[in-house]
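<backbone_tokenisation>
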Amino acid sequence: MTNFQRHMITKPVDGSSITDTITEKLESMIVQGTFKPGDTLPPERQLAKDFAVSRASLRQALSVLESRGLILSKQGGGNYVCDVVKKSFSDPLLDLIKRHHELKFQVIELRQTLECAAAFYAAERATPEDKIVIQRRLAELKAIIPGKNPSEEAKADLELHLAIADAAHNAPLSLMLRNIYALLLSEIEENLSLIHQFEAHTIQLNAQHQEMAEYVINGNSEGAQRVTKEHLELIRNIFVENGLIDKTADTATTRAILANL
């Protein structure tokens, strides 16, 4: 059974507010990642059939979702899921990172905090479908590595990390990581170019990806958390050793940055 089928109403909606019920269901599917930013919702005819409601009631629910900024309706082009977190979260953070080089270290700390938690919960909660996706993303990454294309590898690398994050089944955590990855794509591409200058680091990085996936798939939450921590520590230490990031911004610098937000 797919995630979409899991959320579908199996009997006609009834009660005082059909529109509210449909809106709640669709909003839940968006928040939980069944429909991801950029996805097109199924056609209205299909949704109305799946929810066992009239198209008029469905359209009212879609109108509510659009007013909340969750979807964008295009006449003749369907309904698209909006990236609501990225609008409010990514742009300010990306601007800060560009203007303050010293924050790169703190971004790795942020990733470490969030990704360790995601890996831990993914190992505990991953469904059979999640595990298949993780295995597929790992295989795709392995297939790209020999081509030595940092751009494609960065995308495949992020897709593996996203698959693990989504398997944690924690919507806020998954959304935050998804948008951090999106804004750091070019940074990760540069990171991989540096790491691949050192064969030992490349071998270690690839082995860690393998271990992360295996621990999650096998349900070893502590192992998944540990390897994720080691993975990001490796990246951080390589940058520090090569003088590409400062170990951390001092307290006064951080306060000054926050004061100007």
